[in-house]
Amino acid sequence: xxxxxxxxxxxxxxxxxxxxxxxxYDIPTLISAAGAFATGVATVIMVIFLxxxxxxxxxxxxxxxxxxxxxxxxxxxxxxxxxxxxxxIEEVQKWNEDFAAQERSHNDFWVGIFNPESIEGLDKIxxxxxx
Length: 131
Prior knowledge:
By secondary structure, the protein is mostly helical. The protein has 4 helices and no strands.
């Protein structure tokens, strides 16, 4: 929503700058042009950020999937030593925290567009499965 807001503000400022320029208003033209420039720069920065984010999305999805598969395999096949159980619990807790944060930021109304759905098909890992 933040991206859409900046884009609409840029268009409004550009239209106001043209209207004020035709009527020879100096101060409103200057303010509208400055607003158009500021929101235009913000919009361009957001577009660049979006491009980088969505280009790297497959790599991010692969990283999330690999971590999820690795943790689940270790838990299901009991691939850890009894003294290593605490470290595994910490890794799973970190996974659950990161997963919840990613899910929350993706569903955020204002900045959700900047966080693509890279955790689709994944879920939190139940700590009770660790024996």
